[in-house]
Amino acid sequence: MKVKAYIASAFSKDNAGGNRAGIIFLQQSLSVTQKIAIAKELVFSESAFISGSDQADFKFEYYTPTSEVDLCGHATIASFTLMRELGKVVPNRYTIETKAGIIPIEVQPKRIFMKQPPSEFFEKIEKPELSEAIDISAVNDNFDIQVVSKGGKDILVPVNINDLNALNPNWQAIATLSEQYGVIGMHVFGFSETDIVCRNFAPLYGINEESATGTSSGALACYLFTKNIRRQKEYIFQQGANLGSPSEIVVKLSVNQQDEIIGVNVGGAGYVDDVKFLEVI
């Protein structure tokens, strides 16, 4: 049978770059094996499969070329960008059913935001544990290396900004470390005078590096605010320029009177790119 797959980009900057995702509106039942095969053929880090839901406005499933993941920020933003262009949604509030729970979505005329609860903080990791994965001389000793979850766990690694693009990751070592700590991957970040720049590695899930990661950006915003590092209620993260796909991820934090984070909104702009028809066995 043939399956129609749309391609859209999320977290784009000036209507270019961003992170592309495959988007499939499920018209018939597909097995897990078939969904993974589709994601593999599309060759994007994640693809979203959208269907009806009894619990929310839509049900979203996310697949990498190797497996299913609970939540994917850029595939969600890309999907709603596409649905807005197709007239399936209008500027309004919606909900989606995912394996990470029910996620509220806000469709704006130019941006899409997904709302999430505050991040959870887990183990701190000592720098020598990363020695086989990256050059640890690049690690910024002023901040913690820590596992933080935002729908999926990541190891957040602060590095010196001048060393960020020069990192030469060992994919197998990162995959082994990810498996050891039960994380999706490693989110590496550094500070310039004006920007916070990130790179994201998830080889355990068949994604060596991707150009924009929404859930990891939400986790990073909570990390920075909680640890009082450039504390602010809105962050703009730059990612993907080293891959030739500059991306901009916006994270807005809701904070109560006790200065505690009570909500996280991750979003950005996007555009529709292409459509393909895939033969599925």
Description:
The protein is α+β, with helices and mostly antiparallel strands. The protein has helices at 32-42, 73-86, 161-164, 171-181, 214-226, and strands at 2-12, 19-25, 47-51, 58-63, 68-69, 92-98, 101-107, 112-116, 120-124, 146-149, 153-158, 185-191, 196-202, 207-210, 234-239, 247-255, 261-279. It has two domains: 2-115 and 269-279, Diaminopimelate Epimerase, Chain A, domain 1, CATH 3.10.310.10; 120-267, Diaminopimelate Epimerase, Chain A, domain 1. Strands 1-2-3-4-6-7-8-17 form an eight-stranded mixed beta barrel. A hairpin with a 3-residue loop joins strand 10 (146-149) and strand 11 (153-158). It is globular, with a radius of gyration of 18 Å.
CATH superfamily of the largest domain: Diaminopimelate Epimerase, Chain A, domain 1
Q: Assess the beta-strand content as a share of residues.
A: 35-45%
Low-confidence stretches: none
CATH architecture descriptor text of the largest domain: Roll
End-to-end distance: 7 Å
Shape: globular
Strand and helix order: EEHEEEHEEEEEEHHEEEHEEE
Tell me the count of domains: 2
Question: How would you state the average pLDDT, rounded?
Answer: 95
Q: Fraction of residues in helices?
A: 10-25%
- Which structural class fits the helix and strand makeup? alpha+beta
Compose a concise summary of this entry.
This protein has about 280 residues and is α+β, with helices and mostly antiparallel strands. The protein is built from five helices and 17 strands.
